[in-house]
Amino acid sequence: MSLIAKIRALQAAGEAVTPEALGQTVVVEDVVVEPAHIAGVPLAAEIPAISPARLHRQLVLGRIMAASGSGFGIELTPIGDNDDLSPADMEIMQLKLQLIDHQQTLKATKSQETKIAIKRQFAPLYANWIKGVLEADLAPQREQAAELIATMMIWAIDCGEYYDALPLVEFVLKHKVPMPARFDRDVATFVTDQVAEAAIAAYEKADPGVEAFPLEILGRVEDLVADADMHDQVKAKLQKAIGRALASDAGEDSRIRQEETLKRYQRALELNPSVGVKKDIERLQSALKKSAPPAPPIDQERVDQHAEGAARAVVAFAEALQAAQTNTPAQEAG
Questions:
Q1: pLDDT 10s digits, 189-235
Q2: What is the Cα–Cα distance from 170 to 1, expressed in whole angstroms?
Q3: Distance, CA of 192 to CA of 86 (rounded, Å)
Q4: Residue 209 and residue 109: Cα distance in Å, rounded?
Q5: 239 Cβ partners below 8 Å, 6+ apart?
Q6: Where are the alpha helices (DSSP H) in the chain?
Q7: Are the C-beta atoms of 204 and 186 separated by less than 8 Å?
Q8: 140 and 146 in contact (C-beta within 8 Å)?
């Protein structure tokens, strides 16, 4: 029976999909199991500690996986059977099986808050393999590997770990790694939508003048998706979010910030008239008008000098015109 068939059989029987159940256990030296229990999470979700040997192995196999997929782009190949699997492919399958089990735990959890806590506990089990993939910076060949990479990006964003997510976002966009099949949105749309909504929500709850969401993150996302084809409504959210972040800074360059914020809000409004920034635009325009620098004082002496010079020029022109008319010979009557 193929590996995929075994997985389906276990799922149909309602049994946990584990490497042991599939006969795919890889012996790793120095593994120390120290369960870390999460309150309210079933025992199956308890997380064993990973030994340094296993962490190093994941890092190396992540690099090997990436190297083996060099040049394949998004032409991904599934791992179908368990015969003659390379160590890199075996590690991918181990992690994929682990992910299936973790996703079952998440599916059985109703609370979004608890799901995020579980993802934070699960994510380190994939971290070193992901690190190896990012270091190699080559497109994955295997469908299972692509799904693992995309899923870890999604989890990082879901958990608000944006600084950890950005390298994955860059990798996924660069190598055209697709989103998992259950997602309707493409990578650029998902990342932009999730990050922008999180930023807007953070600023709605925050006190004025507080940087509730890093402007740096929003700027990096804007750069990463600059060439992506997205719905205007999603682009508008990002512009609104950047405007919110800019508006939170009231330093010495506050007028410059206000002008840039106004541009962002106006762009958001162009993209989506229902984005919800009209009042922000009105307030900014009023504030900028009030804070406009006063006109420089008039140098009256200089104005008088110019006026006198202009008057003399007019008189001279009039005199010259009169002289020209006087010196013109009268025409004879016909």
A1: 999 999 999 999 999 999 888 889 999 999 999 999 999 999 999 99
A2: 38
A3: 37
A4: 37
A5: 264, 265, 267, 268, 271, 275
A6: 3-12, 19-22, 52-68, 87-107, 112-122, 124-136, 143-158, 162-174, 187-205, 215-224, 232-247, 254-271, 278-290, 300-326
A7: no
A8: yes
